[in-house]
């Protein structure tokens, strides 16, 4: 805060012991006073532990700075000076020990030479007491002019009064827990007493004397002269006479300093933004002169010194070391010195110097002179390379391909294994969890330095789940094999049986590249072959262009024996839903039949992929197949899909209602709590029973609603799975039939079935947006249709009317797509004949 | 030396860490009420320091989650900060785009310098900070003072102990969970009930602190007003001001400032509050007048000087601003903001040789991406004033690379881009 520092003039740090004992140094053990035997300058009295030291610093190197060092019998708590006995002219030294006090007289025996002077202390009075002392204050109590009385505060806050070596009386206060400062005000013969209630109380000496008698007799209240409620603990108090009639009381709190006149009038109060440690108030001029100025020096925890006059900051500077006590001294060659005592007993004498050390805090500027031409050249080369990167994309592309070369990726699935290690608490899903399928990813990299980091993310559609969704590698050194487990988590329909693996690699240049790998989960993870069931309601025929193959060759996940016993008809049951699907191989075609569409998707997908795969392995070229279907099938499919959407929306509506209810309930809960709190606190306490009942009831309802929400969420997820299963089947069929690839892609993007993911179920909202585009641009609706089916903007997508329109639009799109296909097929059939003819001609 | 005296010495000289350690050892061997209380006090003070408990004025945004007692959200025109800010921005946008960008960025970085004066970290709530401080530093045995909490009010120790107890519960145990705050309030209520001295302002003040932390502003106001009737303590004024500022009622806050200043003449914390409020309301001239008063009373007040410097800078007196900033640099720890401001002053004072070194120094000190981005923006401005558009372009790109949300840089880059394109078109 300031550019100034205290100039050091003298210090006893060379005379100090190296080792310090924590808490040995008492802040009350610094006193500066003048004695007759050393009248030319002040002496500094310091006690550290039981060691009393008296210094008389001077500028000359040769002469002794230390007058006396004396090991006393007990720990010193405080040093005071004053006239404690009437018959000495000089000021005496009072030393307070925990259970006694001693009064000494400082004497000097002059030697023959200057160095031969001898100083010694003669004990005058010694008095012991039983209560443990904390601090003392002294002065001419009761306006006795001849000598100073002594008031000792015990650790329990009691005040004992002594005259020389006689005990006078004692006051006991019950409201002191930690002893706080006590100070005597000479001008009005009163005491400032700080209590643990953080109140400053002023009692007159007379009052205290009466009080001591009162405590013995009866428990009568003793009302102080005046009080000030500081609201914080008072740590130091100093009383200083500022005019003929008045003294000022300066009290230091935790963050404030208060200054009062002794009649209770507050002069000022300062709030510090630092932690004050100690202070010293002093007068410039004499108190009997009108122009005397009261200044206060305050030291802070970060060893700064602030000097205030009133509330105005006059000077601030840095002390060289933190001080726990501060005082002024008048030495022979240094009038107006500053004495500070540090924690380890080091006394420093200094003065407020000027000659600031400018820019002491600022580090040296990094201002090396650069040649402008050279800088310009550097700038140009940088510009050049920047331009190259920005304009010539080939440069970038070259290095991009290199990442792929550096990092070899291989992904594979293993056989599902029984998971015997984990125990599952909820017995319901136990059977599902038991099967786990390892997904293995092998990353190979020759040069470990060329890859900075690799992140692998697994994406699979619910109800599948991965044991780790993301894995991060800091480096790929040689070959890394990552194994991840995929398992079923719930009883939902299976819509997608692929696991998408995304590999994000950062190369040494910081370039980021994303690779994608897909693996197909084995059928045995989610299906088991069972006895043939009844005929399914829905049938789908697949006509390959060569003869049918045995199922055991296609479904390689199951052992041959397992399938062979079923012959040409295989029925598979899903592990999650326990539904079945039957595949039949007839001579020319495969027949897929199931009770519901949701079952068809996963197995059909798997079957077709395996079929193609098998033919590839057999070396059959030009393998094609055709999926036969009829109008009825398509109609049912569309119907089912719309049904699924409706269920999903309904479940979501239900969930939303529950969530709203939860919101209301929890607000209510908090309001009730608050009311209750006010009731508890009010005077007198109000009737709490109804509110407590209300609170408990609300809590009960909260719990039930939360449980409902959990089950509802599961239902939504299930509906979502069914929806995406049927949706995938539709997309699959569309892809098989249509020639217009763009349209199918658009429809697929519109349906965005992959966006349905666990907690994220806001599918309807997403599709509505895309659908309006498809309707307007792809199918070119008339204006009238648009208006009729446009969602009502002021209501949510899930509202009754909007949902109806949504479904209608969806039906329209699907119908259009399928009718187009059927029309195409009709045309194809007529054209087929001619095509064959053309073929013949070519041959 | 007996351990209790050592503890007392450490406590009175404010060496709390050592004090707590000794207390721990002392309490292990014997049960002493005084030592237990000293430990409680030491922990409280440490928590208070870390948690900014002494700072009566905080400018953290109020979080009113489900507060039914919150006050109305739509203030009358002219009585809130929000409206003022909005109009200020409107004026800005009516400028040409390029001009606004530079002007605003200067405002941004300059105020950064001034604001950093406020010591408060406005990230975490102060309660949690205090709690973590304790967990890290002092040996913390939460079970120990529990016995004290259940002092019955018949106990003769209750009255002297209650304030210590309250502060302990409020600062050391009153972490984010409001439950503990409620406990603190319970202590307060009990104390108030048992206290035959109902006139103790401190309890009203402390209740206000609780209410404030709970977000119950109406009750806070009542309590503070009551406390003010009992004692005119500076903390009450500051709390009231802070509360009104937090509630976005600057007129009431100014009123409190005026009342306070009539009791404590020329009192710096109040003057600073007044100046801050005026500044925030857009009344820069009045604010700077008050900042000058503060600087007269307390010449080491950094915030006042920084604000005066900023005022001069915008008042087209960069030379004078430069002198103030140099004084700040001499007396305070160096930081990125001060060098940034010095660099800008140098630029406008035509001291070309010092401009770049100042910015270089600023970049050296800066760690915060916000500030770094702003410094690069200012460098773009420097480059522009030397006529090097390409360099300026690059500087802006660096600025955006560091902090892509820097609005000023975005605008400036857009403007530069448009200009470059127009130039190319002309050339063609």
UniProtKB/TrEMBL annotation, chain A:
GO biological process terms on file: cilium assembly
InterPro entries xref list: PHTB1_N_dom, PTHB1, PTHB1_hp_dom, PTHB1_pf_dom
Ranges for domain PTHB1 hairpin: 639-735
All residue ranges annotated as the PTHB1 N-terminal domain in the record: 1-356
Keyword Coiled coil: yes
Native source organism of the sequence: Spodoptera littoralis
Residue ranges of every copy of the PTHB1 platform domain listed in the record: 522-627
Keywords noted in UniProt: Coiled coil
Protein name from the UniProt record: Protein PTHB1
Coiled-coil stretches: 648-675
GO cellular component: BBSome; membrane
Automatic annotation (TrEMBL), chain B:
GO CC term (a single one): ciliary basal body
InterPro entries: BBS8 (IPR028796), TPR-like_helical_dom_sf (IPR011990), TPR_rpt (IPR019734)
GO biological process, one term: non-motile cilium assembly
Protein name: Tetratricopeptide repeat protein 8
Source organism of this protein record: Spodoptera littoralis
């Amino acid at each position: 805060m300031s550019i100034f520092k205290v100039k050091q003039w003298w210090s006893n740090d060379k005379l100090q012991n190296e080792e310090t004992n924590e808490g040995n140094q008492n802040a009350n053990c610094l006193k500066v006073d003048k004695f007759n035997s050393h009248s030319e300058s002040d002496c500094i009295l310091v006690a550290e532990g039981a060691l009393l030291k008296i210094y008389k610093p001077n500028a000359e190197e040769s002469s002794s700075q230390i007058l006396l060092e004396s090991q006393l019998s007990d720990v010193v708590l405080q040093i005071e000076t004053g006239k404690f006995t009437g018959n000495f002219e000089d000021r005496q030294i009072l030393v307070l020990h925990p259970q006694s006090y001693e009064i000494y007289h400082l004497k000097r025996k002059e030697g023959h030479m200057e160095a031969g002077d001898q100083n010694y202390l003669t004990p005058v009075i010694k008095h012991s007491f039983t209560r443990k002392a904390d601090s003392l204050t002294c002065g001419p109590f009761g306006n006795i002019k001849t000598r100073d009385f002594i008031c000792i505060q015990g650790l329990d806050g009691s005040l004992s009064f002594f005259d020389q070596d006689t005990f006078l009386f004692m006051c006991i206060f019950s409201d002191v827990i930690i002893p706080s400062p006590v100070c005597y005000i000479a001008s009005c013969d009163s005491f400032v007493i700080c209590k643990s209630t953080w109140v400053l109380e002023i009692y007159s000496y007379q009052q205290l004397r009466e009080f001591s008698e009162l405590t013995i007799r009866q428990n009568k209240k003793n009302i102080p002269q005046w009080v000030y409620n500081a609201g914080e603990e008072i740590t130091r108090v100093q009383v200083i006479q500022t005019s003929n009639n008045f003294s000022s009381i300066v009290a230091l709190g935790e963050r404030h300093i208060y200054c009062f006149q002794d009649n209770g009038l507050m002069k000022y109060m300062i709030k510090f933004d630092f932690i004050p440690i100690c202070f010293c108030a002093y007068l410039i001029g004499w108190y009997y002169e009108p122009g005397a100025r009261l200044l206060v020096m305050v030291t802070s925890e970060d060893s700064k010194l602030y000097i205030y006059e009133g509330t105005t900051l006059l000077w601030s500077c840095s002390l060289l070391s933190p001080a726990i006590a501060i005082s002024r001294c008048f030495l022979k060659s240094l009038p107006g010195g500053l004495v500070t005592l540090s924690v380890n007993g080091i006394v420093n004498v200094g003065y407020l110097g000027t000659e600031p050390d400018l820019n002491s805090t600022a580090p040296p500027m990094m201002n090396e002179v650069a040649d402008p031409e050279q800088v310009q050249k550097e700038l140009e080369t940088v510009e050049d390379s920047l331009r190259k990167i920005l304009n010539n994309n080939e440069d970038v592309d070259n290095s991009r391909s290199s990442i792929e070369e550096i990092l070899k990726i291989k992904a594979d699935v293993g056989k599902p294994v029984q998971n015997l290690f984990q125990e599952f608490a909820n017995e319901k899903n136990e059977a599902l969890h038991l099967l786990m399928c390892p997904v293995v990813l092998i990353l190979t990299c020759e040069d470990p330095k060329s890859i900075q980091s690799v992140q692998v993310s697994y994406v699979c559609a619910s109800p599948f789940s991965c044991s780790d969704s993301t894995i991060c590698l800091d480096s790929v050194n040689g070959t890394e094999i990552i194994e991840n487990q995929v398992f079923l988590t719930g009883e939902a329909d299976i819509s997608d049986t692929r696991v998408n693996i995304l590999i994000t690699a950062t190369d040494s240049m910081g370039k980021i590249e994303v690779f994608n790998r897909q693996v197909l989960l084995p059928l045995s993870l989610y299906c088991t072959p069972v006895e043939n069931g009844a005929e399914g309601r829905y049938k789908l025929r697949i006509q390959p262009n060569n003869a049918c193959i045995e199922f055991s060759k296609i479904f390689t996940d199951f052992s041959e024996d397992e399938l062979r016993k079923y012959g040409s008809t295989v029925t598979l049951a899903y592990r999650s839903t326990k539904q079945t699907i039957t595949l039949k191989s007839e001579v020319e075609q495969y027949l897929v039949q199931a009770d519901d569409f949701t079952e068809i998707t996963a197995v059909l997908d798997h079957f077709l992929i395996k079929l193609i795969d098998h033919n590839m392995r057999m070396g059959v070229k030009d393998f094609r197949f055709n999926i036969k279907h009829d109008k009825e099938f398509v109609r049912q499919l569309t119907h089912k899909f719309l049904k699924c959407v409706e269920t999903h929306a309904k479940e979501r509506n239900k969930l939303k209602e529950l969530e709203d209810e939860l919101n209301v309930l929890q607000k209510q809960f908090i309001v009730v709590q608050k009311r209750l709190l006010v009731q508890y606190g009010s005077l007198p306490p109000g009737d709490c029973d109804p509110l407590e009942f209300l609170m408990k009831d609300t809590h009960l309802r909260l719990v039930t609603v939360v449980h409902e929400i959990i089950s509802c969420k599961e239902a939504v997820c299930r509906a979502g799975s069914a929806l995406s299963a049927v949706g995938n089947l539709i997309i699959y069929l569309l892809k098989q039939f249509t020639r217009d690839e763009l349209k199918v892609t658009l429809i697929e993007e519109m349906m965005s079935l992959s966006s349905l993911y666990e907690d994220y179920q806001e599918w309807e909202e997403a599709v509505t947006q895309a659908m309006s585009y498809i309707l307007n641009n792809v199918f070119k609706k008339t204006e009238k249709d648009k208006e009729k089916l446009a969602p009502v903007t002021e209501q949510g997508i899930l509202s009754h009317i909007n949902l109806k329109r949504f479904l209608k639009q969806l039906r329209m799109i699907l119908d259009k797509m399928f009718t187009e296909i059927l029309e195409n097929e009709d045309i194809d059939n007529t054209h087929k004949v001619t095509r064959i003819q053309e073929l013949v001609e070519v041959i | 030396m007996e351990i209790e005296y050592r503890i007392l010495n450490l406590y009175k000289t404010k060496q709390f860490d050592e004090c707590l350690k000794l207390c721990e050892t002392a309490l292990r061997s014997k049960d002493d009420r005084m030592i237990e209380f000293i430990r409680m006090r030491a922990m409280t003070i440490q928590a208070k320091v870390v948690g900014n408990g002494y700072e009566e004025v905080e400018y953290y945004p109020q979080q009113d989650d489900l507060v039914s007692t919150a006050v109305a959200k739509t203030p009358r025109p002219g009585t809130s900060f929000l409206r003022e800010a909005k109009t200020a921005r409107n004026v800005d946008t009516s400028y040409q785009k390029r001009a606004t960008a530079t002007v605003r960025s200067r405002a941004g970085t300059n105020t950064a310098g001034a604001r950093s004066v406020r010591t408060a970290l406005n990230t975490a709530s102060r309660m949690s900070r205090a709690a973590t401080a304790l967990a890290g530093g002092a040996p913390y045995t939460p079970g120990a003072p529990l016995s004290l909490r259940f002092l019955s009010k018949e106990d003769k120790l209750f009255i002297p102990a209650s304030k210590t107890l309250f502060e302990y519960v409020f600062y050391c145990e009153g972490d984010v969970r409001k439950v503990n705050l409620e406990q603190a309030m319970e202590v307060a209520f009990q104390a108030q009930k048992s206290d035959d001295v109902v006139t103790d302002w401190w309890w009203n003040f402390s209740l206000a602190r609780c209410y404030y932390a709970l977000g119950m502003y109406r009750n806070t106001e009542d309590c503070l007003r009551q406390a003010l009737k009992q004692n005119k303590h500076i903390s009450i004024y500051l709390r009231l001001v802070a509360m009104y500022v937090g509630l976005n009622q600057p007129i009431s806050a100014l009123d409190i400032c005026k009342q306070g200043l009539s009791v404590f003449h020329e009192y710096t914390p109040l003057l600073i509050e007044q100046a801050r409020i005026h500044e925030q309301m857009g009344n820069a001239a009045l604010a700077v007048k008050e900042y000058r008063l503060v600087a007269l009373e307390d010449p080491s007040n950094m915030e006042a000087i920084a604000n005066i410097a900023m005022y001069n800078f915008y008042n087209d007196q960069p030379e004078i601003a430069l002198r103030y900033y140099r004084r700040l640099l001499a007396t305070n720890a160096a930081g990125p903001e001060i060098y940034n401001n010095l660099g800008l002053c140098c630029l406008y004072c035509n001291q070309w040789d010092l401009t770049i070194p100042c910015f270089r120094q600023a970049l050296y000190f800066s760690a915060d991406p916000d500030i770094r981005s702003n410094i690069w923006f200012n460098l773009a401005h420097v480059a522009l004033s030397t006529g090097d558009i390409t360099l300026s372009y690059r500087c802006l790109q660096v600025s955006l690379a560091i902090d892509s949300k820097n609005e000023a840089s975005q605008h400036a880059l857009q403007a530069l881009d448009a200009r470059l394109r127009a130039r190319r078109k002309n050339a063609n």
